[in-house]
Amino acid sequence: MTIRLxxxxxxxxxxxxxxxxxxxxxxxxxxxxxxGIHTVPVTARQPHGVKMIAEQAGFNEYAxxxxxxxxxxxxxxxxxxxxxxxxxxxxxLAEALSAQLPDVLFVSVRDGGTTxxxxxxYAEIAHFEDHKRDPSTMGSAELAEVLALPSLKFIxxxxxxxxxxxxxxxxxxxxSGFAATHSGAPFLEILAEGVSKAWGLARLCDRLGIDASEVxxxxxxxxxxxMLSWAGRGVAMANAEEEALAAADEVTLSNDQDxxxxxxxxxxx
Length: 269
Prior knowledge:
The protein is of the alpha/beta class.
């Protein structure tokens, strides 16, 4: 099997629990790049969150952000593509879910991930680690303002319900026009209909002339499952959630044990 592109999730996969990139992992990525293999972060993070670790990992080329909703070039800043949740879809979801859960809160991520419009009360329950963003900069908008424009990612959060519990609530509404997932962060992530990490990765590979069979993918969470299944070789971390484990072709060591590096070392030996 020839590998031409390595697609990797960041949090819980490439990054250790302290959000660092180990020296071992950096060496393995450097060896892959030296062999002419593209190394692409595929993450729920927005570009500013990717750039926080790009230098540590040596990423200076393509990145797929917002769970595959938009592709960027980290070096040039070029936006390769974007897919937005429509106003109609997010309004229908917000109205229906709020009727069931009056305390649910919403955020609209726009403008290539640079604009973050949070509903009143959201900042009070958020932490920097949630979005790699200071809660004091999130603002406090009326719901109408949150819903006023399409979103690259539409965030749904509740102070006490988990993302899985919120996902069950959303699925029970039986609405269409969007995709729902979560990345391990304390909120549900709503994307444009049909969008996933696999969708974004397929678009990038079409651009680069790379077949799915030539892709090696790593992940650990529900939002990685479709990518792990789509790639020619999907690898789940030992710390992965059940959906990622089920979708993967193999399981490696955990993120804190440099599981990604272990696979690359064998591949490049």
